[in-house]
Amino acid sequence: MNLGLGLDDRGVGILPGMTGFAVVICGAGIAGIEGLLRLRRLAGQQVDVTLLSPDDHLVYRPLATLEPFAAGAVRRYPVEQIAADAGVHWVRDALAWVDRHQRVVHTVGGQELPYDALLLAVGGRELSSLEHTDVFTVRDAEGTYGTVLAAVDAGDIGTLAFILPDGPTWPLPLYELALLTAQHAHNGNRRLEIAFVTAEPRPLHAFGGDAGEAMTRLLQRAGITLYTDSGGDIPEAGHLILRPSGRELHPDRIVTLPVITGPNIRGIPGFALDRFLHVDEFCRVRDTDGHIFAAGDSTDLPVKQGGVGAQQADTAAAGIAHLAGAAGAPKPLRPVIRGMLLTGTKPLYLAAHLIAGRGWMAQIFDEPPWSVDEKIVAEELAPYLDRFESSGPQGPTG
Ligand SMILES: Cc1cc2nc3c(=O)[nH]c(=O)nc-3n(C[C@H](O)[C@H](O)[C@H](O)COP(=O)(O)OP(=O)(O)OC[C@H]3O[C@@H](n4cnc5c(N)ncnc54)[C@H](O)[C@@H]3O)c2cc1C
Predict the structure, then answer these.
(1) pLDDT in tens, 329-369
(2) Of 98, 120, 151, 189, which residue has the fewest beta carbons closer than 10 angstroms?
(3) For the structural domain made of 128-259, what CATH number should be given?
(4) Are 256 and 164 in contact (CB under 8 A)?
(5) Can you give the residue ranges of every domain in the chain?
(6) pTM for this predicted structure
(7) Is the CB of 120 within 6 Å of ligand 1?
(8) CA of 33 to the centre of ligand 1 (A)
(9) Is the CA virtual torsion 290, 292, 296, 299 positive or negative?
């Protein structure tokens, strides 16, 4: 089934009002909306953009760690409003598969969306990594971690372990949870021993040297015992065996994060093993015709971070604008990791260049060195959401 509208020269449906270079963006998350806004800036009305996403809201996750402490909340922004502001057509459906030869996106609902350029920004998939743990998820931050905090407050928990799963994940939030919990227990005069277990040789390894030292100091100051170069086996609840040392811990609760795996999109080449989309330095999906781009957690970049995903989206948007004849040749991606760490007291700001999958030249700041004080540093999205916050329900252009 297609939308039953016009047919283009490939015999597939054309959406009303479409005249120019057709761009389909799959995903209305951080990378998808950053890419959309950047493309509008670069190509204006020279591109007809269709936004394909099943969810009603852009979910801004960074404040999830504050939610159980009643100090902040996950923010949600209506996709309908964003699409209207950007002047694009939103198809509330999900990507099913891509016909690369016809250049058509097929949706789960049976629609066919032709494209001249395609941006895949569908995020990663979360998998529970370890048994007998409390897995912190954004979908239910209060539910998953609120019970742990309630037990701390009731004095039912004396020891707590955090274990960073082996494999792609978002490390920053787990460090934040550990620090915020230590501060919370301290404020409530609760005695709580906290251990933090990570396979990294030093904390926040992806950021590089100085960030690790800063985090080690913060953990020490908070009284948290750090185990680096360590994995963990959990044969039963409350029993954690560290690898390779064999040391045994008996925490009352063990908290972890999901691991992230790729979206494994039918029609797009990639490795069956990790299912991530493999991209080149222009954020084009490898082994395709140069018209398919990807950005964000769904790609094979080893650091999963909204700010880095946004930079990928900007690079992809520049490539698409170039294909549309609206801009010059794009520059290759030279990602910089920028992070704001919630510590329980004053936040810390971290920046590092990401080279060959690792952070280099890390810098630590007490004040935000970038213009908008947002947790996800995205050149288009951050100021847009800032205006959204200050303009009330009718949105930034209302
Ligand atoms: C607790 C927590 C705290 C974090 N803190 C920070 C932080 O401080 N700073 C930072 O930079 N990053 C942070 N991150 C990471 C950041 O949230 C992610 O890296 C970022 O959201 C990834 O963006 P994305 O666009 O790739 O995916 P997402 O934001 O997950 O968006 C994916 C989009 O794709 C859509 N979608 C899914 N399947 C389909 C489909 N089949 N078809 C069409 N659309 C589809 C979804 O509905 C969604 O709109 C944090 C993450 C967590 C969990």
Answers:
(1) 999 999 999 989 988 888 889 998 988 877 788 888 989 88
(2) 189
(3) 3.50.50.60
(4) yes
(5) 6-124+262-332, 128-259
(6) 0.92
(7) no
(8) 11
(9) negative
